[in-house]
Amino acid sequence: xxxLLLKELRLGVNPFFYVLPFLTGALMLxxxxxxxxxxxxxxxxxxxxxxxxxxxxxxxxxxxxLPVTKEDIVKAKMLVIVxxxxxxxxxxxxxxxxxxxxxxxxxxFFFEPSLGFWGxxxxxxxxxxxxxxAMYFKTAYKYGAASVMSITAAVLFAGGAEWLSxxxxxxxxxxxxxxxxxxxxxxxxxxxxxxxxxxxTISAYYIAIKxxxxxxx
Length: 217
Known about the structure:
Shape: elongated
Order of helices and strands: HHHHHHHHH
Number of helices: 9
Number of strands: 0
Structural class: mainly alpha
Strand content: under 5%
Distance between the termini: 19 Å
Radius of gyration: 18 Å
C-alpha cells in the first residue's frame, strides 16, 4: 500500500499540482474577495487534470497488473486527493491569516477568512468528495460526469452559504456578525466541518470500493 501511494504521488500527480496551492492561495490576499473560490480552484483545475492524466496514461490498466487489491487502488487514489485538498486548505489558511493582518479594518460583504468560514470549506469539500468518488469508481475511467456533478454541488453549496449569510439574519450574525467574536462558536463550526469532511470522505471510500469491485479490468 505504501509503495502504491508513492506511485500515485510521484507518477500520478504532475508536480505543478503541488505548486498550485501556493498560487491559488495567494488569492486570499485580494481584499474582501469571494474566498470560496480559492478552494474551489482545486475542484476546477486539479481534479479534472489529474484524472484526465490517469485516463491518457492508461493508469487503470497499469495499476491492475500490480500485486495490489482493488481496495488498495481506491485507498491510494483517495488518499492522494485528500492530501492535496488538505494542502490547499492549509496554505489558504496561512494566506488568510496574512490577509487579516494586512487589512485589519476591512469591511467584508462575502465571508472573511474566519474559523467558521474554513469549517464551511471542509463541508464543501466533503460534498465534493462524496459525489465525485462515488461516481468515478463506477468505472474508474470516466471522470467527466463525476467532475461536473461534484463541482456543481460544491458551487451550489458555496453560493447557498453566501446567500444565506446575506439574507438570513441568524446566519449573518453567526458567521459574519457577533459570532465572529465568539471563539467557541467559531471552533464549533470548524470542528463540525472537519467531522463532516471525515464522515463524507470515509463514506465515499466505502461506496467507491463497493462499486469498483464490480468493474472489469
